[in-house]
Design goal:
The protein is α/β, with parallel strands linked by helices. It folds into 3 domains: about 250 residues, FAD/NAD(P)-binding domain; about 100 residues; about 35 residues, no CATH class. The protein has 12 helices and 14 strands. Strands 1, 2, 3, 4, 5, 6 and 14 form a 7-stranded mixed beta sheet that branches. It has a 3-stranded antiparallel beta sheet with strand order 9-8-10, with no helix packed on it. The chain has a two-stranded antiparallel sheet with strand order 7-11. Strand 5 and strand 6 form a beta hairpin. Helix 1 packs parallel to helix 11 and helix 11 crosses helix 12. The longest helix is centred in the middle third of the chain and has 25 residues. It is globular.
Length: about 450
């Protein structure tokens, strides 16, 4: 690869704050609101023109991890519950009590954008939209500022404590923190995917839905459709009875590689059109179905992970382990979407008894590295340790959302949005406490962070 030397230059400071949050997705807006409500002057930097991350830009839904595994006990509260209740008042989500009877919280993404604006502005957060974080300025083991690019040019945002809620550990990586990516054997992350919205569809009877699914899966296994499941009735990212939001697509690639991202976006849009054409031609009642929305960006399940003071493991998930320093709870299971992007033959999850034929290299040569147990205890949950949010090598950084310190398998459970929002509230709370005490986040007693979270309605011990 050829290189061009970039001349050194001084950067104007756009703004500065006690707490600077990079990324306005599930782990970011929650961190910013929590920090601001705790009294810290807070800036939130977001690359799109709206907040919500995968929930809005990716049309990913529903919000998972809000209740115990196979149970209705709430394991999150605080900002997750507040978001649900605010959305419910606008017609954009079910009531919280009703949501606890559902496997996930469905919602209207467009209304979520508006509600999140209200929440961050109401908390007094300074929001910078259309602003991309491109680098960090480091002094010894501390971040001094984030380097940003926007229509205003290349500018710095200074802070005392920083929260990386980029989803891809961009800040941690650029600050020199140790990160890893994908499964240990070959570095492959889980497959990407695109959720899309289809309008003008009926509510199918159970018999009609089953018949449609059989046609879809038969076409998949003949190589006519690239879908990993039927998903014909999924309404995860909408409450409209005449809309569906299928979660059926898959593309293998590295989300931190711009060429892979580009190929994924184009390939998945092409797959989406073919899927819709198949629905129209083969599912009675779908003759006039139309493409109501494509996501702003491809859905990312996994990219970089921090190597923190503690790494959440698959055993922690399936054993339902609790931790004295837990700052959030999770209940989603080890849901590893095939890193090879395979769809045919019932290949859904990467696990020890995957039915892939022919088997991949992992099944042939490293089957013992694949998970066999996938689920937390019935009616249970697992803790997310505060230590998993803390880098070993950057003093004033807290990591939030899906890029916390977790193994490939454990992250497949902890990555869901309800859990990431709970982690975000904890990250912002810790960042605010650290600035108040002029301390590094790692110097805070986890009990103090937990006490502040409990006072704000977070659930730490159902």
């Amino acid at each position: 690869m050829s290189v061009i030397e970039e001349p050194a230059r001084q950067l104007d400071v756009l703004t500065e704050a006690d707490v600077v949050v990079a990324g306005g997705g599930p782990g970011g807006w929650t961190a910013a609101v929590a920090a601001a409500r705790a009294g810290a002057r807070t800036v939130l930097v977001e690359r799109y023109g709206f907040l919500g991350g995968m929930a809005t830009a990716g049309l990913i839904g529903p919000i998972l991890g809000h209740r115990a595994h196979s149970g209705s006990t709430p394991i999150v509260g605080g900002l997750v519950r507040e978001l649900c209740e605010r959305l419910h008042r606008t017609g954009g989500a079910p009531a919280w009590e009703d949501a606890l009877r559902l496997w996930g919280i469905p919602f209207e993404p467009e209304l979520m954008k508006v509600v999140l604006d209200e929440m961050v502005e109401g908390a007094g957060v300074e929001v910078l939209l259309h602003t991309l974080v491109t680098d960090t300025v480091i002094r010894k083991d501390r971040i001094v500022a984030l380097v940003t690019e926007s229509k205003s040019g290349r500018l710095a945002v200074k802070g005392r404590v920083f929260v990386d809620a980029t989803g891809d550990a961009d800040v941690a990586f650029r600050a020199g923190a140790t990160t890893r990516k994908g499964r240990p054997a070959d570095g492959r992350p889980m497959a990407m995917g695109t959720m899309f919205r289809v309008g003008g569809v009926p509510v199918l009877s159970e018999e009609a839905s089953r018949a449609a699914a059989e046609r879809i899966l038969a076409a998949r296994d003949r190589g006519e459709l690239r879908v990993y499941n039927a998903g014909i009735q999924t309404r995860s990212s909408t409450l409209r009875a005449d809309h569906i939001t299928p979660n059926v697509t898959r593309f293998a690639g590295d989300p931190t590689n711009v060429r892979d991202l580009t190929r994924g976006e184009i390939s998945l849009r092409r797959d989406t059109v073919r899927i819709l054409e198949f629905y129209r031609a083969n599912v009675p009642g779908f003759e006039r179905a139309f493409l109501a929305a494509l996501p702003t960006q491809v859905g990312i399940r996994e990219s970089r992970q921090l190597e923190g003071l503690y790494t959440l493991t698959a055993e922690d998930v399936v054993e339902g382990r609790q931790f004295e320093d837990a700052i959030a709870l999770g209940s989603w299971w080890i849901d590893i979407h095939c890193p090879m992007g395979r769809v045919r033959g019932g290949v859904h999850l990467c696990k020890g008894d995957c039915p892939a034929d022919p088997p991949c290299d992992m099944l042939r040569e490293r089957r013992d590295e694949l998970p066999v147990r996938l689920f937390p205890p019935e009616g249970g949950w697992y803790g997310i340790p505060y230590r998993s949010l803390l880098p070993k090598d950057v003093r004033n950084l807290v990591v939030s959302g899906r890029c916390i310190s977790a193994t490939h398998a454990a992250m497949a459970g902890a990555r869901v949005m309800g859990t990431c929002m709970a982690i975000g509230q904890a990250a912002g709370t810790a960042a605010a406490l650290a600035t108040c005490r002029d301390a590094a986040p790692a110097e805070l007693p986890a009990s103090d962070v937990r006490r502040a979270l409990a006072a704000a309605g977070a659930v730490l011990a159902p």
